[in-house]
Amino acid sequence: MTNEMSSERKTAIIVGVLYIIGTVSGIIWKVLAGLIPNDLNLLTKITANESQITIGAFSLLIMGLALAMVPVMMFPILRKYNEVLAVGYVVFRGALETVTTIAAVVGWIFLTILGHHYIAGAPDASYIQTLGALTLEGNTSLGIISQFVFPLGALMFYWVLYQAKLIPRWISGWGLISAILVLVFAFLNLFGIVAVKDVFDSSIFLQEMVMAVWLIVKGFNPDTIASVSLKTDTNEVK
Predict the structure, then answer these.
(1) Contacts of 117 (CB under 8 A, 6+ apart)
(2) Do 50 and 112 contact (CB within 8 A), yes or no?
(3) What digits encode the pLDDT tens for the residues 74-97?
(4) CB-count exposure of residue 73 (10 Å: 0-12, 13-18, 19+)
(5) What is the separation of C-alpha 124 from the centre of its chain, rounded to a whole number of angstroms?
(6) Which of 9, 96, 195, 220 is deepest in the core (most CB within 10 A)?
């Protein structure tokens, strides 16, 4: 049991660090990408701010990879409490969200390439501009998909944490509420209502940072871990 507890403690620290890396990288991307307006001069402005877009895309990639590792690290623990939701969490946040993130990164890098051809005065400039608009539209669509994928995966994650009491329920409960708010925003966004997006994002960002620090400093609830370990040992004896 001592070795298992040590393993759980290491997992908590790694997950906490991954959340910090992912969230900070996501904020960097959000700030940098938000400085590029979506207008007719998109390609010109992207080229003029190529280093900003490149850094932002790299930050987005780091965020995606870091957060994709969380469900992988957590699966052996979560499956002991609810295997169905543990698998769902891996599918939504480990697979689907990673695919959309990587596709978005490729889209932004492709826009910088198009920008160079556009600025160089290519004879098919109008075609390049149209292709750039379509690429941006594709990234926007990926963002909409991610707005649903992320909170659904988060709901699965925090529900298991809440039920199992792996962390204080006020933290997992906060995560549940925040995920629901983000999901509500995703539906509102379909109707063009985006005024509350920053409020919802801030709630989940802050919650994830608090949870990350808790996992690094305190880890998972030792009583919960010990209880499951005891049941496992008893079943093995039987």
Answers:
(1) 128
(2) yes
(3) 999 999 999 999 999 999 999 999
(4) middle
(5) 37
(6) 220
